[in-house]
Amino acid sequence: MPVKTTCPYCGVGCGVVADRDADGKVTVSGDREHPANFGRLCSKGSALAETIGLEGRLLAPLMNGQPATWDDALDHVAGQFARIIREHGPDAVAFYVSGQLLTEDYYVVNKLSKGFVGTANIDTNSRLCMASSVVGHKRAFGSDTVPGCYEDLEQADLLVLVGSNSAWCHPILHQRMLAAKEKNPACRIVVIDPRRTATCEGADLHLPLRAGSDVMLFNGLLAYLAGNNVIDRDFVGNVTSGVADALAQVAGQTVARTAGACGLTEGTLELFFDWFARTERVVTLYSQGVNQSTSGVDKVNAIINCHLLTGRIGRPGMGPFSLTGQPNAMGGREVGGLANQLAAHMDLENAAHRDIVQRFWRAPVMAEKGGLKAVDMFDAIADGRIKAVWIMSTNPVVSLPDADRVRAALDACELVVVSDCMRHTDTTRHAHVLLPALAWGEKDGTVTNSERRISRQRPFLPPPGEARADWRIVCDVARRMGYAGFDYAAAAEVFREHAELSGFENGGRRDFDISALATCDDQAYEALEPVQWPVTRDAPSGTARMFETPHFFTPDHKARFVAVKPRAARNATSRDYPLVLNTGRVRDQWHTMTRTGKTARLLSHIFEPYAEFHPEDARMAGVKHDGLARLTSPWGKMIARVVVTSEQRRGCVFVPMHWNEEFAGAGRVNALVNPAVDPLSGQPESKHTPVKADPFRPK
Ligand code: SF4
Hints:
With 699 residues, this protein is an alpha/beta fold. 31% of the residues lie in helices and 16% in strands.
């Protein structure tokens, strides 16, 4: 029987139909009825069947590398967590989780951490993906709300892609944009990115701005719009606040000054400003080039300011649009899976919200302040403040910045528990206890994509070996620690509890509300169709677009302009480190390659780590196309194949983030990446590390 499920890779959240024949052979195809992809799949999605073999899987618990029974492993984890909490307090333990987890997994581990252990030291690799957008949304709208939907991209006359190589990183959405442009000759696409990426191929204009100058550019646009009277005065006057401060911040910022600061020609910049000013239906999409910055939150608000000034939000074909990187980055936000959030979009630092959640969970304690965000969490592990960490479905030894320090931190940690579906990753190597988790195709639950659409991940394979669902492993440990409230029989029960909590009144801030799903029985959960939240009694089929009635979630229900001041990246280039390292993804690999690295088809696209140099930078560094270069930053080093291309902006080097230590000892690019973070979001600056390059000749 074909099973409808959801792709486990990017935040587009495409529907997949998986079919398993009598011999157990699985084929996958795009789900024609899924509103994210209407049957299409990209290269990664269409290769899913090649990644589900059991080679490399973790199939039974291990303790110190030796096979163990589930009972022994769980008793050990629960006993050691309880002892460390008793001796050192709840903040001596931490959970580092993942946007790969299903919402049900995320909900349960967040409940255990904040409501029962009593620590907010739970953070997620989604911190690396969209934390800046969360804070930007909350500053502007009073809630973490993505206003629009994918259909808006097809209704727009101008699509502005900022810091987003959507052709490679959100391929199906990119194909939808190109198809819409094909149908609508008036539609233009503008790409704002220091690199000339594959996304530029279908674009009308590429602005190769100076790395990190996005705030300057959107402040310049705000000044241009105001100067040319492109202002929706009713909207600004009636439903926003703070416009005077925002405009005062950009007063006198001319096109010439903006172009100079952004390293662009005046004519090109003015063309973009003019298109933006003249086009009513504009969607501005942004991704990691905006978020992964020490000014990430300000960049988000600089973009949103331009949409507020023109009133272009909450209507078809317009609005700011944050593209999430991971399949369930959005679901993690719903359940409060970040160190500074509570469940159901409630605030950890709001006593009334804490009270609601604590009563609902019948929790003995409740964390009262934000916990340590990802980078700070691993610093606290390194210096011994955190003595036990449980890492779920993620590989921080490859993916976090200053990755050698992360590795050293795990080496020094008293107890490292890793639950994962893979036996050998750079992170599992450091685990004292390894707990086998289910993988895609075996898991049962929900994920939420970039347009707030909740979709089911359904199992079509039997659980292999002794692997268990992540939510069940968490419950097994929680019960052994003596906590009540972790007796769920199935993922559907977790989902109903999560949905019920979302319906509680939280001071007029019911942006995330799926309470209409709280009464779904097991059959209805099984059959749940993709649906966009909020899903309420008034909107039982979900909500495509937010703020159609411009009623925001701030106390006065007005959207906020935020006056943002351009700031330089935290670590500047120097004579010793003259190049800016920018990291990102390639088309056919996902994260640290634990799944996509299994298929020859996907590896044939790009099979080794490479560094893209501008020809002049390559000449200065003495590195040659197809040769090898050693890249060094103050934090670490690696070896990469040299690609010399004029598509790279002068002064910048691009290196993909996927490859791990095992690849010919080349090293991980995140070992070089500086651990500087945005002061508000804690999101690392993965796009701006000063590095140097020199030729490398193997001995
Ligand atoms: Fe999967 Fe993203 Fe490709 Fe869709 S676009 S098939 S969600 S990787």
